[in-house]
């Protein structure tokens, strides 16, 4: 799936939840999907325009993207389903921490330990954030049809952050003074 197709998934998916302005759409992608998906704001507006031209979304009220409310159409829902059924495209990993650790002999043991402690602390903080988010959304939206799917994405974040913290802890043990 191309980058533009993935942007279409983010835009159409967000609009399938509720109609919104382009600005609200941008905020929703950042604040809601941002836990597991980042989207360039520079891609959202052109994608929205292309989806409108293709008849997949309709503009209601206003003449500017920021003031208009966009609504997904039946063809937009069909396009979203088509895109969601395409194979998942994995992006090549780019992990600055792992790059530094790979060359850790040059960087030095103590600096690598600092990086690992930072990674562990960040993972633990992220896990706590995901757990709070899950508790809040369970109370607020636990009975909505979308909640089981939202819950799955939050659980992925919880498990990933737990694993990242455990990995960093194990690596810190590896780097203990001989």
UniProtKB/TrEMBL annotation:
Domain named Transcription regulator PadR C-terminal is located at 94-175
The UniProt keyword set, sorted, is:
Coiled coil
Annotated Transcription regulator PadR N-terminal domain ranges read 11-80
Positions in coiled-coil regions: 113-143
User: Record's Pfam families?
Assistant: PadR, Vir_act_alpha_C
Superkingdom classification of source: Bacteria
Q: Which PANTHER family match?
A: NEGATIVE TRANSCRIPTION REGULATOR PADR (PTHR43252:SF6), TRANSCRIPTIONAL REGULATOR YQJI (PTHR43252)
What's the protein here called?
PadR family transcriptional regulator
């Amino acid at each position: 799936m191309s980058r533009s197709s993935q942007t279409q998934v983010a835009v159409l998916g967000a609009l399938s939840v509720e109609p919104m302005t382009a600005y609200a759409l941008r905020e929703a992608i950042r604040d809601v999907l941002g836990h597991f998906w980042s989207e360039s704001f520079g891609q959202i507006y052109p994608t929205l325009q292309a989806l409108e031209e293709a008849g997949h979304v309709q503009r209601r009220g206003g003449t500017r993207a920021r003031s208009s409310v966009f609504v997904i159409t039946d063809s937009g829902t069909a396009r979203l389903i088509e895109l969601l059924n395409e194979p998942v495209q994995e992006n090549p990993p780019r992990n600055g921490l792992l790059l530094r650790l790979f060359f850790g002999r040059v960087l030095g043991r103590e600096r690598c330990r600092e990086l690992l402690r930072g990674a562990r602390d960040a993972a633990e903080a992220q896990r706590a954030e995901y757990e709070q988010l899950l508790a809040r959304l369970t109370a607020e939206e636990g009975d909505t049809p979308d909640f089981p799917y939202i819950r799955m994405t939050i659980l992925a974040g919880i498990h990933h952050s737990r694993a990242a913290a455990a990995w960093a802890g194990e690596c810190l043990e590896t780097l203990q003074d001989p």
